[in-house]
Amino acid sequence: MSRAGARVGVGTRFRYDGETVEVVEMAATTVGNEVVLKDGRGRLLRLSLRELLFSDRVAIVPDGPGPSAGDVEEIASVVLGQLDEAERRKVFERAEHVREVLTGYRSGTAEIARVGEPRPEYAPTLPLEARHEAKAAELGVTSRSVRRWVADFREHGEAGLAPKKGPARKSQVGVDDRWVETAVEVMVEHTDQSRPSRTMVIDRTRARVIARFGEGVVPQPSRATAFRLLEELERRHPLFRLSTKRNRDIAGRPEGPYGKLRPTRPGEYLLMDSTRLDVFAFDPLTLKWLQAELSVGMDWYSRCITGIRLTPVSTKAVDVSAVLFQSFRPRPAGRDWPRHAVWPEHGIPRTVLVDVEGVTGPGLASPPLVPETLVVDHGKVYVSEHLTSVCRRMGISIQPARLRTGRDKGPVERYFRTLREGLLQVLPGYKGSDIHSRGESPEDDAFFFLDELEAIIREWTAAVYHCRPHSSLVDPGLPGLRMSPAKMFEHGMARAGYIEVPRDRDLAFEFLQTKWRTVQHYGVEIGRRRYSGPGLPEPGVRSPYDSPVKNGWPFQVDPDDITRIYFRDPANRAWHTLLWEHAPSAEMPLSEDALTFARQLAASKYRFPDDRLAVADLLERWNLGLGTTIAERRMALRLSREQAAIELPESEAETVVSLPSVRKALGQDEQTPELREPDGVTETGDDDEADLEDLAEEDDFYADALEDV
């Protein structure tokens, strides 16, 4: 299996200013951690480790195979995006056969094995060549073809099994798969209900197939065939033979023991999960309270949080990719964070190799890691084809947890509880762990915006959670010693003796979404936005891809920043950045949701709006207090007064309110003393003239804004 990381140590080779050099010594000096390099002519060069790992003049020379931006193969999203539904089903079915050859199970793991697995001819104890021959005889192909499938799957995952030439041939089956899937869907719906008859399930399946796909689109099996099919589906989902209580127990139980993973070093296992936060937040566009979901990545060995992302309402696949990418490239630390909460930019703890006084730079919010195995649940955002194929290409294994079994990801679930008890419950807008613990109207106190809430969680995690001893973080040699996640990471670094870094910084583009578009004389148009820039193919050049769009080219798009897209030249495999034509007017990253909201505002205000005018109006709306009316601006100002008047006397609250991000959000920052004390004016109504006068006198900015109104 290829790997995305490369080990750095004595003997590692680099390309420095076009010349090959080799690391011959690593030493800690008074100015920081340094390495000694030797070139081909025997000359020695001393260089800082930071310069070696992060400079554009240096490129690592890996000692083994692995993914790189210069690979001839296309990335997983490009390969899978060229397939239609029939070809995609055939690729996934072939992947199941390959997994059965390798492990004995269609799913690839014994924990979610199907009925009858492993079959005798695919038992893991048999030689691999015997399993190749058995699968070739089963599918009617040569053993050479099976060996080629196995090699492609090991190298590229499901994307390696995609057809290289020509369309995929459709397989002939007795009963249409859509009818079978609908029948299983109807059976699952009756798990918690009274037992139905087989005739009722067949009639409902036929009616649902006609309503969903149309009359005559899906062939209906005969009554006898449908009864035989239900007998086969009974083994997958019991419904008719046993009692209803027994059927519910079978549907809800885990399939076999899961075991216990024991991490031995940082980066060996990365836990990823999402949860609905028990606190309300404010939408910066509508000034309405909303619920938020938190997605995190946790290193199992040290319990360090390597990635944090807060999203409104629900989590998308791009959010999970962003959390995973933060493990490769952590976010920078805040300027006013305490020193013990900041990690050095090279990721090595200060107490291991680097002199404390020699550390320079803003630092990182979390330690950088190249994970080896992801432990995730079965949510759609975590088991998408794109994410699994990218992980397979980068050498990252995926370990699925059991269905509806939270203890399989116990450390990250414990972090969510610690976050709720240590931070969220002392914040305004806390709604309790369940509906029975909820206050009368907690949304009335929700004044933290989403970005403020994410900054507070990120800083609390770095300053408090990473530095607090955990009862489960122990060293077997010193069972009485309790360590914090930061100390445990240092302990793991000392035990492992090395770190892993991303072998190619351009691998980050593989986490983005792929859009297929044609190239016109003005550039590329995506979502009614036009992009152009150097490196774009000429309009008349024929695309080498078998794309869903005629003569289409693949472009990587980040929904959180639509001011630019990325394109890889198939000739030299180099990435190019294409800018949006209205990007200079935005002057900051703009998400796709924000642009959609801006277009709605402009359409209701102007007769012939365009994107430049829509973005300008949206920025003006944000700058004028996040509202378009005097009442909304007065509401925002009143909320800022309430923020300044909040006092949290409890011990846990004192720890939270001492964070710089919390003080800034509460208006208690030392740099803004005018927001500390609440205003003494009593408001009697929305039309009170005292409110308008007080609002206009708050500062010159609001005075000018009200004059325009």
Can you describe this structure in just a few lines?
This protein is an alpha+beta fold.
Largest sheet: 6 strands, antiparallel
Task: Average the pLDDT over all residues and give the rounded result.
Answer: 76
Adjacency order of strands in the biggest sheet? 15-18-19-20-17-16
Please bin the fraction of helical residues: 25-40%
Give the structural class: alpha+beta
How far apart are the first and last residues' alpha carbons, in Å? 64 Å
**With helices defined by DSSP (H or I, 4 residues minimum), what is the helix count?**
22
Low-confidence sequence ranges: 165-173, 350-360, 622-630, 632-649, 671-709
Percent strand = 5-15%
Q: What does the model show?
A:
It is a single chain. With 709 residues, the chain is α+β, with helices and mostly antiparallel strands. It is built from 22 helices and 20 strands. Strands 15-18-19-20-17-16 form a six-stranded antiparallel beta sheet. Strands 5-4-3-2-6 form a five-stranded antiparallel beta sheet. A five-stranded mixed beta sheet has the order 11-10-7-12-13, with helices on both faces. A hairpin with a 2-residue loop joins strand 2 (13-16) and strand 3. Helix 4 packs across helix 5 (143-156). It is globular and about 80 Å long. Mean pLDDT is 76; it is low at 165-173, 350-360, 622-630, 632-649 and 671-709.
